[in-house]
Amino acid sequence: MDYEYLFLGVSFSSSIFSALFCLALLGLKLVEDQTELMVKKATIVLILFYIVCIFFYTTTFFDIFQVLYFPCLKGVNFLTTLLIPTLFYHLIFRLTRLKKEEKFRYFHYGISLMLSFTFYLYHQTGLEIIVEGHYAKKSMLSFLLLNEDSVMATVFNLSYLLLSLYRLLIYRKNIANYSSDEERDSLVWLYPIFVIGFLLFPGSIVLYLFPQIQSNLIIGQLIPNFLFMFFNINLCYNLFCENFAQVTEDILEEEQLVNQETDKKVKELTIDKQKFEKYIVEKKPYLNPQLKITDLLSDLITNRSYLSQFINTTYKMNFCQYINHCRYNEYLKLKENSNLEQNAEEDLILISGFRSYESFKRTEDAVYRTKNKPQNTVTQ
Q1: Would you say 72 and 58 are in contact if contact means Cβ atoms under 8 Å apart?
Q2: Which residues contact 353 (CB under 8 A, 6 or more apart)?
Q3: Which of 5, 72, 74, 318 has the most other CB atoms within 10 Å of its CB?
């Protein structure tokens, strides 16, 4: 028995069956759950992502093991190689929208289809043989032409990964001044997925640059396939649990409109620090784990931009950090006044408004790391 091929087959199976499992799970969620429209759209995009991944790994499996051969098999494999990062970017776009009316531009899929069609014509018309023969003596051009599919796929994948990461960074910069639910809305769980993505998607060119890696069973095939399995499961789990903000209003306001409104209502929007802290202490809005900055506007008679600026300037924190500091103050008061035998520490953390113990620990670490005393956030 050839154990190398056995392990290779198992690794491919892990990628394909993990995608099938995630596909079935999200399909059930789509059919059974009465979810919001935004969640449904993101779920559909991820379902399409898994379908394309199954085609990619199936065609790759057929090519490596030479199980079946069809003239179009290589073209389908190349198309799926381009559609995977496109669908991933589409999903990131859905999860990181800063405006509810922001629309995804479907020309991204057109680029994938156009490149795939060009690739197909290049091989089927015999142009590949003519061009490679003409530049055979030029080593760099020869390498690029002999591996044009891998080079093109690597550049394409890397471009869309960077574009997706850029959207995530912009989103995280703005969401901290909008939502206090850091664990759910910050999309921090996407970072490990991006690490795996940067290891997997542009990896084809590395295999061609270093043939010894490609011929190595563990590094060349087993590890990438199992990494892709974790990639699938992580994405599916967080979308299934809806660990993201459902945008029902604009997170990012138009700067021009904000400035105009601020100029018109500057007296009306002015926030008194003592009154603000009195409101925070008496009303305790921070006890709501899903508190958003817009939930405070009607009581404080102000707008989002001015309130966010007031918190940033006065307390040197963003909205999320400020609310979590208030929750930490609440936790300290509850801990001082309660009997820990009757109230476990985890219960006090949840009662204080934290969504989880992990969120509490991040805030506690931030408080002592910056040497920021908790009582400085609000009047006790």
Answers
A1: no
A2: 286, 287, 288, 289, 291, 323, 326, 327, 330
A3: 318
- CB–CB of 179/293 below 8 Å? yes
Higher-confidence residue of 88 and 121: namely 88
- pLDDT tens by residue, 235-278: 999 999 888 876 666 666 544 444 555 454 444 457 888 889 89
Per-residue pLDDT tens over the stretch 273-307: 888 989 999 999 999 988 888 888 888 888 888 88
- Residues 74/63, Cβ–Cβ less than 8 Å: yes
Token duo for residue 152: 């093109």
Angle at Cα 124 formed by Cα 118 and Cα 125, nearest 5°?
90
pLDDT of residue 212: 53
